[in-house]
Specification:
Length: 363
């Protein structure tokens, strides 16, 4: 029977969490018929390979294992993608897992889609952020709480993007038609972390259609110390984020001429926001004791002329949007951050605004 969904699972030193991840897949209804799981062991120093091999032996019709030297996240995707055999493909990190009941429904919907000969380049689904103290936050792609799309309807992607709202297509909610990625020669940067942003970005240049399903599939574990999204780790790895940003900007330059006018406008906003996020890491998110002005000076000296070259309007206001002050402009004028008392005051307003937003729009 033809496999409908391939799942790429990068793993590095995740022997303790990999069984939970794999069990959430193989126990789904239809897994043996429709699921293709490729686990890529990225030179783990623990028993991750042995764990993966055991599951491969127990579920040979579903799980395959690739063992390779360490090359970081992108190298695992590049190793797995040439051998996936599902019509659609999704990435699942080994410290995360799928809701098994939802996966059963997801596979059923894929089968229905296949039987109707319909297909979409992107399938977008909600996902859950799992934080400390059993905090669960469902992330949906909406406009200030309004979900303007009909679930189950295949849209022209330009039709979705034409309203100008900046959507953040994140890895956890994305499933791609495999042929789309093969057609564009998709590859990720190797040797560094944070390249899942490339997975979320590059295919949007060429995808033609998108399908929204109200299936909360991906359960994203944010409560593991030392993971790449840990704020302390991000501070240490900001140079890797800069490399990813540089590569994404190179991709933008090379491919922006090939897209529609609507897509050009949306991608310009997307990359403006990418630059805003990078400046925010330096000027707002980074603890003051870790802030090094010379590092931001070097970043700014390299990237700000690129923003001007590409006609990007990059403004960094506080998240709460109440205080209309531009942190980047202040940096360019004074070459220092705002005073500590102001940052602390603004942080409290941000926390309040975030709490209100979650209560109102992400219930």
């Amino acid at each position: 029977m033809k496999k409908l969904l391939s799942i790429i699972i990068p793993t590095y030193n995740m022997a303790s969490l990999l069984p939970r991840c794999l069990e959430s897949l193989v126990t789904a209804e239809g897994a043996s018929d429709y699921l293709d799981v490729v686990v890529v062991n990225d030179g783990s120093k623990d028993d991750s390979l042995e764990v993966a091999r055991k599951w491969e032996a127990d579920y040979p019709s579903v799980i395959r294992v690739i063992d390779k030297p360490n090359g970081n996240y992108g190298s695992t995707i590049n190793a797995a993608f040439p051998v996936v055999c599902g019509k659609y493909v999704k990435v699942l990190d080994s410290d995360d897992y799928f809701d098994t009941a939802v996966l059963s429904r997801f596979l059923s919907e894929l089968n229905t889609l296949e039987n109707t000969s319909a297909e979409a380049d992107i399938i977008q689904t909600p996902f859950t952020n799992l934080g400390p103290d059993n905090l669960r936050e469902v992330v949906r792609y909406n406009t200030m709480g309004r979900e303007p799309y009909e679930y189950g309807h295949i849209y022209d992607l330009d039709e979705v993007l034409k309203d100008g709202y900046i959507r953040f297509f994140l890895m956890h909610g994305l499933t791609y038609r495999t042929e789309l990625l093969r057609r564009i020669g998709y590859r990720q940067t190797e040797g560094i972390s944070y390249t899942d942003t490339e997975w979320s970005c590059y295919p949007t240049f060429y995808a033609k259609t998108v399908l929204f399903w109200n299936l909360n599939l991906y359960q994203y574990n944010l409560d593991r110390p030392g993971q790449t999204m840990d704020p302390k780790v991000i501070v240490r790895c900001i140079s890797q984020l800069s490399v990813v940003t540089e590569n994404m900007l190179d991709y933008y330059r090379k491919h922006i001429a090939d897209v529609s006018a609507i897509r050009k406008g949306w991608l310009k906003q997307y990359f403006e926001n990418r630059m805003r996020i990078m400046y925010k890491l330096f000027l707002l998110d980074m603890p003051r004791e870790d802030f090094k002005a010379d590092e931001l000076e070097a970043f700014d000296r390299h990237f700000w002329p690129i923003c001007q070259e590409l006609n990007f309007r990059v403004v960094l206001w506080p998240e709460n949007k109440l205080l209309r002050i531009d942190y980047i402009r202040y940096w360019h004028k004074h070459h220092k951050r705002w005073p500590a008392w102001f940052e602390a005051f603004n942080h409290q307003i941000d926390r309040l605004a975030r709490w209100v937003y979650v209560k109102v729009f992400r219930r």
